[in-house]
């Protein structure tokens, strides 16, 4: 949707603490935008469009609970941001054609 910065609030828990933040970093690279991820019980982070964690802060650390950051204000263009899920739909269509071909050849 051509967003340059995306805010992602999330209520995490200690067991999933770093994993969800890494997943947000993957999405930032995939879509080509910066991510500001705020969590209630987890790892808050600001992530650049290249997947770099510019700043991060865990709610389980002893700190003042205020995170400041500087993120790129402009996103980048990626292949996925242009074509979206068209490759997935192509693969599903190929599998359906393959299954139809098998079923027609059985009879």
Total number of helices: 3
Radius of gyration: 20 Å
Percent helix: 25-40%
- Outline type: elongated
Structural class of the helices, strands and pairings?
Answer: alpha+beta
The total strand number stands at 4
Low-confidence spans: none
Main β-sheet: number of strands, strand sense, barrel status?
A: 4 strands, mixed
Strand order, largest beta sheet: 1-2-3-4
Element-level helix/strand string: EHEEEHH
Mean pLDDT reading:
88
Proportion of residues in β-strands: 15-25%
CA-to-CA gap between the ends?
46 Å
Number of domains: 2
Question: What's the helix and strand layout?
Answer:
Blueprint: E1 5-10, H1 17-31, E2 34-39, E3 43-47, E4 53-58, H2 79-83, H3 86-106
Describe it for me?
By secondary structure, this protein is an alpha+beta fold. It folds into two domains: 5-76, no CATH class; 81-107. It contains three helices and four strands; from the N terminus they run E-H-E-E-E-H-H. It has helices at 17-31, 79-83, 86-106; strands spanning 5-10, 34-39, 43-47, 53-58. The protein has a four-stranded mixed beta sheet, covered by helices on one side. Strand 2 (34-39) and strand 3 (43-47) form a beta hairpin. It is elongated and about 70 Å long. The mean pLDDT is 88.
Short description:
The protein has 107 residues and is an alpha+beta fold. Helices cover 38% and strands 21% of the residues. It has 2 domains: 5-76, no CATH class; 81-107.
Keyword list:
2 domains; 4-stranded mixed sheet; 3 helices; 4 strands
């Amino acid at each position: 949707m051509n967003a340059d910065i995306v805010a992602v609030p999330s209520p995490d828990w200690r067991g999933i603490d770093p994993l969800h933040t890494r997943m947000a970093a993957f999405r930032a690279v995939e879509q080509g935008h910066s991510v500001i991820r705020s969590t209630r019980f987890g790892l808050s982070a600001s992530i650049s469009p290249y997947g770099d964690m510019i700043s991060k802060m865990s709610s389980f650390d002893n700190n003042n609970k205020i995170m400041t950051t500087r993120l790129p204000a402009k996103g980048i263009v990626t292949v996925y941001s242009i074509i979206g899920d068209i490759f997935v739909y192509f693969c599903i269509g190929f599998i359906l054609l393959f299954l139809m071909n098998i079923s027609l050849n059985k009879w």
